[in-house]
Amino acid sequence: MLFDTYETKGLLFNMNFKETDGKYAGYRGDLVLELGEVGDALGHRKPPVSTIKNTVVLAEDDKIKMYVGSLDDLALLPRILDYYKADFAPDVKIILFVVNIAKPLVIEKDGYSIIAISMQEGLIWNELIDMAALDKGDFKGQSPTTKIVTVYKALSDYKPKGDKVSFDEALTRTVELTRAGRGPV
């Protein structure tokens, strides 16, 4: 299974679940974009240098059909492609919630049309459900992976908003924003 391979490579971080359900496999958690350095003689690694947070990933027959997550900095987008594009299906749907952009964009990079949406706080899963025009009742009795399949199918006719730009142009549209943090109340 694809996500087992990622686990052995140390690419899964803060995992909520990874599961196979028939021909589909689902993963929710963070994915590593740059591994931490080796920290001891036994080969244990330090925490990753960078990750894509709160990912929701769906694979069908070990090819990624939907890749969703949150990036603090749009400049990290090439690392996603470096680490994961070999496993993307030709028709992969990539949706990134990016902290340091102010307006939605459709970014053309390496032959992919990547939907980039501004988001400084919030839950990726809830945003996806809203984008797909679903509600919690649509998921009754479903396994975690089947829930992701439901969202993926509901997004099949989703029309992204925002200017269609190259990655280089998108970098010129970044802003000085950081993720909104939450602490004790």
How would you describe this structure in keywords?
21% helix; alpha/beta; 8 strands; 185 residues
Layout of SSEs?
Blueprint: H1 2-8, E1 12-21, E2 24-34, E3 50-60, E4 63-71, H2 77-84, E5 88-98, E6 105-109, E7 112-118, H3 124-131, H4 144-154, E8 163-166, H5 167-171
Parallel strand pairs: 4-5, 5-7, 6-8
Antiparallel strand pairs: 1-2, 2-3, 3-4, 6-7
Can you put this structure into words, describing what you see?
The protein is α/β, with parallel strands linked by helices and 185 residues long. The chain has one domain. It is built from five helices and eight strands; from the N terminus they run H-E-E-E-E-H-E-E-E-H-H-E-H. It has an eight-stranded mixed beta sheet with strand order 1-2-3-4-5-7-6-8. The longest helix is centred in the C-terminal third of the chain and has 11 residues. The chain is globular and about 50 Å long. The mean pLDDT is 93.
Number of helical runs?
Answer: 5
What is the H/E string? HEEEEHEEEHHEH
Largest sheet, described in full?
8 strands, mixed
How much helicity do the residues have?
A: 10-25%
What global shape is seen? globular
Distance between the termini: 42 Å
Average of the residue pLDDT scores = 93
The number of domains is 1
Structural class: alpha/beta
Q: What oligomeric state do the depicted chains represent?
A: single chain
Numbering strands along the chain, what is their spatial order in the largest sheet? 1-2-3-4-5-7-6-8
What is the gyration radius calculated from CA atoms? 16 Å
Tell me how many strands there are: 8
- The proportion of strand residues reads 35-45%
Instruction: Show unreliable segments.
Output: none
